[in-house]
């Protein structure tokens, strides 16, 4: 039987600070910086020749690698419906709840954040006046959405006085990503096997600064031991599910991820997708 070849792509990583003379905490501003003020104080560089394997055929165990593919009934989940926030809340999220609990064997799920991304035609550049210029764009640098300290700081706002009750059960924080139409051949999402990550050396704490809030995330430095996966031709009925935190194992299974360019193998049709962040309880 022929062995399937991985896709070879470029992934953007944080450049390691070999000198150790960095001053101040790393940050990146998600708004126009004042004149003369750096937009960020670290360097993201492309690393070429990264092999990205087929998650469909890898047969990875979610409980050991923190990533899996689930399915959802996509009947009636037309792309244009997702522009209606009320419809997403009343139709999509309840259907997602059922799909995730069934796939992971969870007893309940609480969504705390969701976001649409609509790639602008000029991405990764952005041209004023074009469609989707203000929309969230694919994220090209390898990252984890939260540090453990960041999650701790948010729990009170998520659960309030119910915090102790809610978190008394085993739980995970997960990300659920899907294209709004498929097969997805435009900037699909890639997932880094956390078992190949040296957390002490490869993960880099960064403050993502918005006009009214700052979030602490992990960016990722390149390591030749990293093993990447993606879902080729992901369908609108397929959910990429990956871990960000586990109440028993901390962030040992947190999955770094990013979008990547398929180059000549891509469709050129700008990707629309939805990502949902949630607590799942067992």
TrEMBL record:
Protein family according to the UniProt entry: Belongs to the asaB hydroxylase/desaturase family.
Gene Ontology molecular-function annotations: oxidoreductase activity
InterPro entries in alphabetical order: AsaB-like
Signal peptide start and end residues: none
Organism field: Lasiosphaeria miniovina
UniProt superkingdom: Eukaryota
Descriptive protein name: Methyltransferase
């Amino acid at each position: 039987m022929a062995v399937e070849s991985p896709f070879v792509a470029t992934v953007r990583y944080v450049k390691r600070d070999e000198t150790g003379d960095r001053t101040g905490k790393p940050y990146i501003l998600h708004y126009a910086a004042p004149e003369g003020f750096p937009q960020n104080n670290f360097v993201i560089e492309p690393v070429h020749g990264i092999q990205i394997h087929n998650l469909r055929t890898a047969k990875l165990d979610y409980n050991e690698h923190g990533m899996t593919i689930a399915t959802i009934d996509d009947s009636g989940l037309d792309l244009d419906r997702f522009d209606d926030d009320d419809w997403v809340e009343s139709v999509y999220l309840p259907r997602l709840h059922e799909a995730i609990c069934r796939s992971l064997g969870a007893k309940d799920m609480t969504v705390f954040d969701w976001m649409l991304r609509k790639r602008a035609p000029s991405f990764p550049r952005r041209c004023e006046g074009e469609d989707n210029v203000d929309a969230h764009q694919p994220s090209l640098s390898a990252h984890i959405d939260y540090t453990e300290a960041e999650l701790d700081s948010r729990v009170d706002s998520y659960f309030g006085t119910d915090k102790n009750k809610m978190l008394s059960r085993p739980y995970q924080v997960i990300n659920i990503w899907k294209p709004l139409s498929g097969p997805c051949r435009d900037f699909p999402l890639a997932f880094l096997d956390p078992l190949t990550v040296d957390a002490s050396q490869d993960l880099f704490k960064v403050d993502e600064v918005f006009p009214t809030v700052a979030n602490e995330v992990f960016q990722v430095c390149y390591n030749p031991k990293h093993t990447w996966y993606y879902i080729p031709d992901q369908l609108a009925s397929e959910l990429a599910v990956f871990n960000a935190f586990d109440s028993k194992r901390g962030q040992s299974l947190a999955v770094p991820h990013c979008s990547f360019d398929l180059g000549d193998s891509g469709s050129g049709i700008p990707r629309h997708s939805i990502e949902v962040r949630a607590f799942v309880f067992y």
